[in-house]
Amino acid sequence: MSEANTPLIQQIVAKLGRPPSYAERGVSGSILGVAAQSYGSNSVVEDVTQPTGFDPEVAALFEALVESAFLVAHADGDFDETEREAFEHIVLAVCQGKVAERQVHALLLDLQAQLEEDGLEKRVAMVGRSIKRPEHAHEVLRVAALLAEVSGGVSAVERQVLSELAKACQLDEFALSRALTEATMSLSAEELGRW
């Protein structure tokens, strides 16, 4: 993932906030957005009573969705400060205020530490273990593919990490191809003003 321009970031944020093209009729938001609400309701202040609506499984799903894109962003071994800031901005914008900036910042620091300690292969496996439902697995690929597009297209090394994520989430190459195609087509359509 390289430095992205603001219009492209806005396109990614808009697409990540919408349901995928294959979502059931009547679905108005993305799984990432719904999961963000639960994750954001988890107070980071110890003395505060947890508000209703916090679901640890949904919060774990949010973390897995963010981590999947984080792992793809690190695929080339080059994730500089500019890329980290753009990544954090995208996550915050998609959350639409449901997750505090300090929570996203802390999550990204945790993900960085876990990646350094465990390595890419183990972190991909951990994402796969945290995914319980097929639609969540598809969302992992969709989110990661869209964020990989920020770099001007999915590189070979990013595609390899996406393929490993698909396997870890028990999805096939068709699911990966669909996520990649949707990412490419949605951004092209956004650029032409068709969305």
What does this structure look like?
The chain is mainly alpha-helical. The protein has one domain (6-191). 68% of the residues lie in helices and 0% in strands. The protein contains nine helices and no strands. Helix 5 packs across helix 6 (120-130). It is globular. The model is unreliable at 43-50 and 191-195 (pLDDT under 50).
Question: How would you summarize what this structure contains?
Answer:
The protein has one domain (6-191). The protein is globular, with a radius of gyration of 16 Å. The chain contains nine helices and no strands.
The number of domains is 1
Give the amount of beta strand, in percent: under 5%
Radius of gyration: 16 Å
Summarize the amount of helix as a percent range: 55-70%
Low-confidence stretches: 43-50, 191-195
Biggest β-sheet description: none
List the helices and strands and how they pair.
Blueprint: H1 6-17, H2 31-40, H3 56-73, H4 81-95, H5 101-118, H6 120-130, H7 134-149, H8 156-168, H9 173-191
Helix pairs in contact: 1-4, 1-9, 2-3, 3-5, 3-6, 3-7, 3-8, 5-6, 6-8, 7-8, 7-9
Features:
single chain, 195 residues, mainly alpha, 68% helix, 0% strand, globular, disordered C terminus
